[in-house]
Fold:
Amino acid sequence: MAKSVEELQVYQKALEASAAVSSIIQRPSFTRDPRLRDQLGSSTERVASAIAEGFEQSTDRHFAQYLYRSRGSSREARTQLVVARDRQHITESERVELSDRYEEIARMLTGLIAHLEAEDRKHRR
Structure:
């Protein structure tokens, strides 16, 4: 098991995807749509943040709860990307590329959740 959250590949991928979204929401078109910009930025940041917060929990079950939240934020991000595309802030190819990243993250989270729930250690450290 990882000794730090930075060792988790899913955490690294979440940070990379968040950085990619962050560069997109800096576009001038998003200044006219601040609510969407903020929602998209927040949902993508929460994916990595929930993983990090959960990693510090003392039991596998508690960690898994944070991973469920992270997975929910991943779904929210994919929805906001559809809205961004519909409002013509991003292209369909950008939406697909970013959505694919978040779908991969969600699959990784599902696998990690299953592992944690099977292990169910009461003391992770």
